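Sample intake sheet
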Amino acid sequence: MKVYEGSSDKCSQGQLLDEGVVQVMKLGKFLKSAYPDFLNDKNLPNTYLYSTDTQRTFATINVLLAQLYSRAKGRGPFNVHTRDFNDDFFALNIPGCRRFVDLRTSFHLTDSYKEITASPEYRECDRRWQEEFGTPLQLSQADDCLLSAYCSRSTLPGGKRVDPKLLACVTNASFELRAIKLGGVANSSYVEDGQKICQLGTYHVVEAIKDTVFKKLHVAGLYSIHDETYVCLLSSFGIWDGVWPKYTSVIALEFYSDGVVRVVRDGAEIGILDEKLALSLFQKNEDVESFCKV
C-alpha cells in the first residue's frame, strides 16, 4: 500500500504547483454543484476513486476530494486505487504489450516528428534551451524541469530566472507533437497509428469504468488522469475538437437508464451517444489481444 503525503512545503519535479491547487479547489466546487445527488458525503463509500501513479495526479485527487466531501477534513486517508505506472492503462499503457510500446515510441522516427523538430520555431526553442542549460532540448523532460524551477522560485544556471518565452515555446511544441502522435492532425503521416494508439489504449479505460462503476454498483467514479488519456477518450468517441485540454479540464460521462450517454466537457455538453454504439467505437478485447500477440 502506498501512502500519499502532501508536500506543499516542498518542490520536486512533477509536483503540483500552488496555482494548480487553487484550480483544483475551483473544480471541486463546480463538480459538487453540478452533481449534488452523486458527489456527497453519503455516497463517498460508494464512489470509486482512482489516480495514476504520479505525484501530480495524487495531489490533484487529494485536493479535489477535500473540496467534494465535507467530512474529509480531519478524517483518515482516502482509499484511492492505483497501479504501477508502466502497467496502468489510465496512463495509456497496456501491460505486457511490447508492440504497443513500440508503436508509441516509433513516433520519434516519423516524418511528422522530424519536420517539427527541424522547423525554425523549434530550433529557436532549442537555442533558448541550450543558452539556459547547456544541453540539447528534450521535450519529455523540459516542461517538468521548467515548471519545477518556477515552483521553487529558484534561479537557473547563471543566475537567470525562468524565461516565459522559453516555457511557452516548450509547451507549444510539446502539445503540437502530442496532438500528431495521438492521431489528432488529419494531414499527419502518423494519423492512422495515432488513432490506433487511442483506440487500443482507451479500450481498457472504458472496460475499467464499466467493471468498477457499473458491475460493482458504485454511484460514481472519479479518475485523476493525464491529458493524453483525456484526448484519446474524446478522439475514440469521435468528438475531439483538436483543442488540447488545460489542467483541471474534466470529462463527464453520464450514463442514463434509457441507454443514452451524455458527454460533458468542462460543463458543456459536447455529445449525445448511444451506450452500445459509444462503447463499440473502441477496439474489442480480441483485437487488443491479437495486436499484442504479434
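Comment: The longest strand covers residues 268-274. The two ends are 35 Å apart (CA to CA).
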